[in-house]
Amino acid sequence: MKKLFSILAFTLLLLISYLIIDNYVLKNKINSNKEKTLTPLPCDLNSKDCVYKFKNKEILISLTPKPIKSLQNIHLKIKNLGTYENLKLKIYGLNMFMGEINPKIYRINQTDYEAQFTLSACSMHIMRFRAELINNNKPIDFYFDFDLRR
């Protein structure tokens, strides 16, 4: 009788352990792997050039070629930004950390700049990037976001 009770207690313990693991551990792991829903961007740089307001000016941002693809040389043009002596560009992922891209940015004239960079391939269906402009190692509070679709 004690042996039968021990077997039943052990079986019940295994069943409870399985239910706890199934409910909490496995479901959390599956949910964490799902992509977070991204809100649509106000302007999609994959289909057109975009204009952003910054310091009472309209800044035109252009990425070519369109649509943006990974492992492809991407040309960035920034028009009407203003004069900055030590402007830098920092590009990083918002919905997955993939490191930073710090391409060299060139001044074309007093207000316009350009740069070239390549984005790494990503396993996510939509990878959202942020391009942030920095002058003298301080953000100038101007950035723009764009999506890379698989």
UniProtKB/TrEMBL annotation:
<protein>
    <recommendedName>
        <fullName>Periplasmic protein</fullName>
    </recommendedName>
</protein>
